[in-house]
Amino acid sequence: MKKRGKSKAQISLEFLIVVGFAFLLTIPLVIIFYKQSENINIEVTASQLDKVVSEIRDAADEVYYLGSPSKKTVTVYLPKGVQSISVTANKIVFVVDSPSGDYELVKWSAANLTGSIQTYHGIHHVRVEAFDTYVSITD
Fold it and tell me: Per-residue confidence at 100, pLDDT binned at 50, 70, 90?
């Protein structure tokens, strides 16, 4: 009878060792998955912002070339992480927060630009309007 109890204890111990080993292998996989998903989120945000700035710049160039009193409304989605937006001279500058530090996303326009866009995340209806000497961009 004693032999049988030792066998059950050995099986239990082996089972615990196998489960512990599987758990130890799972932890690095979870960490790798988390890091990769974080990197993908950063890339998606950067891509969305690049598209947003390009759409606004393209609308500004379009109304500039059409001349006064051209107007256009662009509907864009701003993701989280935009700290500030400046529209001055002939450039649009987005300052974006990321885990690796802040960076600037700059797009140049053929037109002299003025205006402001709010930085809250979500849907924005950006109005782009051409005047005699400049293009106004407002949210």
Answer: confident
CA distance 11 to 5: 10
3-state SS string for the chain:
CHHHHHHHHHHHHHHHHHHHHHHHHHHHHHHHHHHHHHHHHHHHHHHHHHHHHHHHHHHHHHHHHHCCCCEEEEEEEECCCEEEEEEECCEEEEEECCCCCCEEEEEECCCCEEEECCCCCEEEEEEEEECCCCEEEEC
**Domain total for the chain?**
1
Q: List beta partners, residue 78.
A: 122
CA geometry: angle at 68 spanning 59 and 119, to 5°? 40
Q: What is the pTM of this model?
A: 0.78
